[in-house]
């Protein structure tokens, strides 16, 4: 997820929110922020924004929660588009302008047809939603989630042991939201976005659009791959699942018809790498990944942050790194990493920001460390 938290489209005449997309993090957030209330609590009204003809960038810091948000606000005559991100992105402003202009043209054309056919207001609202999703997916989706992320179905979409009529209801819902059902049915937590494109022979841009549609309709979330170096540890919630017979404990056992997931939770304890956990477990890697995903989703375990140190390379190291296979792009990436890791930052956080697979970042850092040790 490329730093987006919230996207909203407003009617410029009355400030009414026509459509908004919340919780646009690549995984779940622990806070349910009211982004419009945050604005009003800062003394900023819709009229203040509406009366400004320029693109607006506002940074708001919530010190008590340790969060900061950047509000970007752009408008055309009839509509306003507001996006909340984690920082200012240089490419965002022209994208927002392009999106709102295209939407204005698309909705104007559609309103003419609606007036001629006297379509009911509910259908009009659905059309606005559909147009907004098509527009935003076309303009933003490639920036929202990097190709190395893995889509996962949300736990509340399907129930274990569901009856056929529930499946039918889900199929009808997917159809009503123009969801690609073939693509949705293949989501099992094993393929990254890029792998979906390759395996299904679907253009990557189209894959992004399809997943964006599922994402904003709250059907899926995204996660990183599990790497051998990932260290998993229990959270405070683990105690409720480890006690025999509690509702939490039984919910996990009943869902998977096995107590093996509880055993995995016990092994994780205060910290263990994914590789060691896999070596110690008696289940397949795919099953282990499903258990880990379930436990992370329930906030029973978490991945420990990885905070690398990037050292500035001297001119003496360049020939040695070149011998190790460093390319021009690798050296450029190293400079970028040095800039982005100046403060203590998590590997995953930076990987999302610069849209580079964490494995490649780790490989670059490892080669540099090896070169430094050889020189010393």
TrEMBL record:
Record protein name field: Uncharacterized protein
Lineage, broadest ranks: Archaea, Promethearchaeati, Promethearchaeota, Promethearchaeia, Promethearchaeales
